[in-house]
Amino acid sequence: VLPLLLLSLLILISTLNPHIYYGDISTVELNSNFQKIFKDFSGLGYTPITNITSHIMEDVAREINMQDRLEFFASEEDLENASLYDPSSYIGV
């Protein structure tokens, strides 16, 4: 009886809890002048911190010439707080 009660509660909670949808970002092909696009950005931050994400983001930062502006954050909340001052010029991954 308890498993059925818990299953019913899970179904009820999942139907009442709305899903969060994020807006789409269109993809573009980067041409030879793509570094000009990123020169105005103040920072490039990412989370979670793992060996794989660090390696990938270091490669990305090197490719777009933002090695000195690459930051890592322990949580998504810390990443959001870092971009609060000027969110339009901060890239968060």
Automatic annotation (TrEMBL):
Nucleotide-binding among keywords: yes
Signal peptide start and end residues: 1-18
The entry's keywords: ATP-binding, Nucleotide-binding, Signal
Example GO molecular function: ATP binding
Name the UniProt record assigns to this protein: ATP-binding cassette, sub-family A (ABC1), member 5
Record organism: Nothobranchius pienaari
Species lineage: Eukaryota, Metazoa, Chordata, Craniata, Vertebrata
Gene field: ABCA5
